[in-house]
Amino acid sequence: MPPDGVVAIVNPFAGAGATRDAPQVRQRLLEERFAAAGVTGCVRFTERAGHAGELARAALDAGAALVIAWGGDGTINEIASAVSGSRTPLGIVPAGSGNGFANELGLDSVPRRAIDTALLGRDRVIDGGEFDGRRFFNIAGTGLDAAVAERFNTRPRGRRGLGPYLRITARELMRYKSLRYRIRLDGDEIVTTALFVVFANGREFGNRIRIAPGAKLDDGLLEAIVVEDRPPLARLWSSRFAALGRLERTPGMIVRGVRQASIETDREIVYQIDGETGRAPGRVEIRVVPATLTVRVAR
Predict the structure, then answer these.
(1) What pLDDT, in 10s, does the model give residues 260-299?
(2) Which of 32, 99, 88, 85 is nearest to 60 (CA)?
(3) What is the pLDDT of residue 99?
(4) What count of Cα atoms within 13 Å lies in the side-chain half-sphere of residue 56?
């Protein structure tokens, strides 16, 4: 690959309905669009967890002019985390279950059009966040959302999507056991038993389910959302506000723009970072990382 070329990093079987020949189909489509745009490019396929980030760092070391991520939120997060802080733009071909980050950027879900946007679109600089030392670009949090993500991610490929996500969420709304947290938001302390504590750079989890209607990708802030716990039936009833995009009507909710925060509890903290889960022993630090990622969006 020449130093000014394009590197597309592809999760070969990401997305509902991916068939056995999906890698070949995706490679042919990318090469066709490279030729139509008059650019030199190559395609690299991921083989395991963490491989997308390795391939992205190798592309940067080789002087790639553009890195394209084709996959779900986890693949995109790995590649964006590697590209973050560089001047190399990131193009995205969304192929996940919810595509919350891609939706927030206004990207097309049709691969051909998403590739063309990556190759011919304009650059936009956005913020990121850091949660327990890990980068995120859409949403990170602990509580109910992390419990749902853990269970959702155990489902095999081809059996995800909005329906299973909503069923898992409904079950967890009835049985999830909330923790008591000490939360600091830019120095202000809150002690509460919370259903979830979320830090949002983008507005939605995915599938157009908005958790942070006021969040902006480029304002130098994360939107912190703390929802106090309620009995299971009240939780289920209040969940309609999120589905309707009227989360501000949820009882016991705190919303605040923050630059840094921390969460403490006497239990292990299960969290999700752009849909991928992790664990931390009792305390995590969160901060915004301003103007850290250049993404390609439609002109």
Answers:
(1) 999 999 999 999 999 899 999 999 999 999 999 999 999 9
(2) 88
(3) 86
(4) 27
* 200-248: pLDDT as tens digits: 999 987 667 778 888 999 999 999 999 888 776 666 666 666 655 666 6
Separation between Cα atoms, residue 22 and residue 13, nearest integer Å: 6
The Cα 32–Cα 283 span in angstroms is 48
Reduced 3-state DSSP string for the chain: CCCCCEEEEECCCCCCCCCCCHHHHHHHHHHHHHHHHCCCEEEEECCCCCHHHHHHHHHHHCCCCEEEEEECHHHHHHHHHHHCCCCCCEEEEECCCCEHHHHHCCCCCCHHHHHHHHHHCEEEEEEEEEECCEEECCEEEEEHHHHHHHHHHCCCCCCCCHHHHHHHHHHHHHHCCCEEEEEEECCEEEEEEEEEEEEECCCEEECCEECCCCCCCCCCCEEEEEEECCCHHHHHHHHHHHHCCCHHHCCCEEEEEECEEEEECCCCEEEEECCEEEEECCEEEEEEEEEEEEEEECC
Q: What's the distance, Cα to Cα, between the start and end of the chain in Å?
A: 27
Q: CB neighbours (10 Å) of residue 240?
A: 11
Q: What's the predicted TM-score (pTM) here?
A: 0.89
Find tokens 């992390």 and name the residue.
146
- Cα distance between residue 241 and residue 297, in whole Å: 30
pLDDT of 162 above 80: no
Q: How many CB atoms lie within 10 A of CB 281?
A: 8
Distance CA 86, CA 80 (A): 10
